[in-house]
Design brief:
This protein is α+β, with helices and mostly antiparallel strands and 179 residues long. It is built from three helices and four strands, in the order βααββαβ. The chain has a four-stranded antiparallel β-sheet.
């Protein structure tokens, strides 16, 4: 399982009206922050892919914001305040919550569409036949691997097609701890 890194803008109560409207729309009243790879809720902190990034990023469609080199990613960030430095694993085959990833703490599992742009958990308005809003943690993730895999299966069987975002990959999300 390849470990990848990404810097994402934070989204939470400090975002004022945008946060209030999001919580009202989503019904996710338990949230203290959203930690996700969703590009609308938490845009990438590095906006453009520079030529110097190519040896340090995943060279696949929809994956150009993901770095294979944490030190390089950190060197490109002028300021990390207001940014989540995330360590992620795409399509983990087993539960990784106990993984010893130096400096990173496990937060939970997200389900992202094939474009790696939209979270089925926090940005689709809910899928009541697959999961309840109350199952999401205070950062909008599923804490249990088996439950996340089950939700992924139900989304595909009950909502796809026609719902494009229901065809999703499982992502394990870890956050770099402040130093």
């Amino acid at each position: 399982m390849q470990r990848l890194y990404i810097a994402k803008e934070r989204f939470g109560p400090s975002d004022g009206t945008g946060w209030t409207k999001y919580v009202e729309w989503s019904g996710l009243t338990q949230l203290t922050e959203v930690v996700t790879l969703d590009t609308m809720l938490c845009p990438a902190a590095l906006e453009d892919t520079k030529d110097s990034y190519w040896p340090h990023i995943v060279n696949e469609d929809y994956m150009l914001d993901f770095f294979v080199d944490l030190n390089f990613l950190l060197s490109e960030l002028a300021d990390v305040s207001g940014v989540n430095i995330l360590g992620v694993i795409r399509r983990p085959s087993t539960d990784v919550r106990q993984l010893d990833w130096d400096g990173f703490a496990f937060l939970g599992y997200d389900l992202l569409d094939q474009d790696v742009s939209t979270s089925a958990l926090t940005n689709c308005g809910g899928f009541p036949e697959a999961f309840e809003n109350s199952e999401l943690s205070d950062v909008g993730l599923i804490p249990d691997f088996d439950r996340a895999v089950e939700i992924q299966r139900i989304l595909r069987s009950k909502y796809y097609p026609p719902e494009h975002h229901a065809d999703c990959d499982l992502w394990a999300i870890f956050r770099r701890q402040s130093k």
